[in-house]
Amino acid sequence: MQPSSDAEKICILALMHTPGIGAVTIRQLISHCGSAFQVFQADYKKLIKIPGIGDKIVKSVLSKNTLELAERELAECRKTGTQLLSFNDPDYPVRLRALYDAPVALYTKGTTDFNWPRTVGIVGTRKISEYGKLITENIIRDLVPYQPLVVSGLAYGVDITAHRHCLRNNLATLGVMASGLDVIYPAPHQRTAFEMQDNGGIVTENALGTKPDFMRFPARNRIIAGLSDVIIVVESGRTGGSLITVEFAQNYHREVFAVPGAINEAQSEGCNFLIRDHKASIFTSVEDMAETLGWLKGAPQIGSGVMTNDPVITFEGFTQEEAQVLSLLKQRGSMQLDELAWQSGMHLNRLASLLLNLEFQGMVRSMPGKKYGLI
């Protein structure tokens, strides 16, 4: 029997709240059992056989102590107008689903289509200069003909400047938070966060009520990088969250641009060094960046899910599931069976059958350690 949508979401939330279980473990459990609901239907003998799942974790799952908490949390999401997207939800961002460290679930408010055809992440220092403000304003203005979704972190400085100019230019914008959606940080940005929900929205991987602890900001930055086709660093010092975002972007094979600045300005040190070390292309104009990305002026069809790395359009002549697997292998080079199951959201048995068929077609080869790669 297939579980209801609510039952599956409750079970995913319950796994997220189960002590000693992180995203990788949840991935293992769901990949082997087929769904979060089936994880809680499994017995000790089945769960203990899953690689990497020990006695302590199995007993934590079987206690089912977090199911009631998860039910209350889902009810609170409904009460506050918060949408919960689990990684196997069809509306979950395709750009994130293909990543090895994708959030198990996202909490979101607003009107955002997470599979917007074009996305631009704009990040930078909290101590923005007048030069940085002017450049950010100009970037947003010049992005309007291309109609991307602009992603940032709702922080002071470059982030909030980008969000607010998007609102003024009627450009969709998404704020990625390091807290729960009901804990807007910093507090002075509450009004902007509310206004963004009419043309974009706010999103987090953190449960309602979560405070913006320091350790949550790097995790937030990986989501900004993962949701973006390209990252623009407007201003940055030699250290900080912007450079962490760049590291994630490079790991995810995203394009990175940095705005050059005066060599004696602390706010431009990070950007200048990114350019010097060939970790970012020099940003000269939106038009030049768009040419690099192959963008044409004019809004692409919103809701089409079309983007440069969309698995549905990358491999013609294959089914959607086959194209998804081939795209993942193309992006990562090679992947273990469990990792493929997690990223694709497929049951292991279905995935194994699909991989065998792709082997027969001469597209995929099996490798030691239950790994697969493209031929």
Automatic annotation (TrEMBL):
Location of the Helix-hairpin-helix DNA-binding motif class domain: 13-32, 45-64
Highest taxon, organism lineage: Bacteria
Family annotation (InterPro entries): DprA (IPR003488), DprA_WH (IPR041614), DrpA_SLOG (IPR057666), Hlx-hairpin-Hlx_DNA-bd_motif (IPR003583), RuvA_2-like (IPR010994), WH-like_DNA-bd_sf (IPR036388)
One Pfam family from the record: DNA_processg_A
SMART domains: HhH1
Signal peptide segment: none
Stated family: Belongs to the DprA/Smf family.
Protein name: DNA processing protein DprA
Classification of source organism: Bacteria, Pseudomonadati, Bacteroidota, Cytophagia, Cytophagales
